[in-house]
Design goal:
With 177 residues, the protein is mainly alpha-helical. It has a domain at 4-108. 77% of the residues lie in helices and 0% in strands. It has 7 helices and no strands. α3 crosses α4. The longest helix has 40 residues, at 65-104.
């Protein structure tokens, strides 16, 4: 078993690298978080990962909270702090330097081209995140049907997503899912 310092170093390295790939926000790295936490490091199960994601999304504050929860699960308060700083620090520093570069180059055409190129990357990463979360949380046919129905409703109607969340919660509370 890893030493506490080794575990913290693994957390720092993992989330530090991941922060540099978080184009579109922390949720765009959900597939990699899942791969590392569940498949590679065996820190938790699919179910635990899905539960942590749900808690992170329901809690007020930034969506990067899942990183804090994973770190806490693995190494307590120290793990939570290391994971959070590792996920936020490198990307914040990168954003600072890039924003200064973009401000100085505002007259050039390349910043707009670069930003436009990042949009499909961000959308693809977010779609991959949704796919991974669907695979980890839909354990029954009923749950899969509810997820597909919610996705179709979200894409084809202007229904507020809160109603779909409430419906899913009620179905879960009733024991259907």
């Amino acid at each position: 078993m890893n030493s506490p310092a080794g575990t913290l170093l693994t957390i720092a390295w993992t989330f530090g690298l991941m922060s540099l790939l978080a184009i579109g926000g922390a949720n765009s790295t959900i597939p990699e978080m899942h791969r590392v936490a569940v498949e590679a490091q065996h820190w938790m199960s699919d179910s635990q990962f899905a539960d942590m994601f749900a808690i992170a999304q329901l809690s007020p504050g930034p969506n990067v909270l899942i990183v804090t929860l994973i770190g806490f699960h693995v190494a307590g308060v120290a793990g939570a702090l290391v994971a959070t700083f590792a996920m936020c620090g490198p990307s914040a520093m990168c954003a600072y330097f890039v924003s200064n570069l973009l401000r100085r180059s505002s007259h050039a055409a390349w910043p707009a081209i670069f930003q436009a190129a990042l949009v499909p990357i961000s959308i693809g990463l977010m779609c991959a995140s949704g796919f991974v979360l669907t695979l980890t949380s839909d354990r029954t046919w009923a749950a899969a049907a509810i997820t597909i129905s919610a996705a179709v409703l979200a894409l084809t109607t202007r229904l507020n997503p809160v109603w779909m969340l409430i419906a899913g919660g009620l179905l879960g509370f009733a024991g259907i899912v």
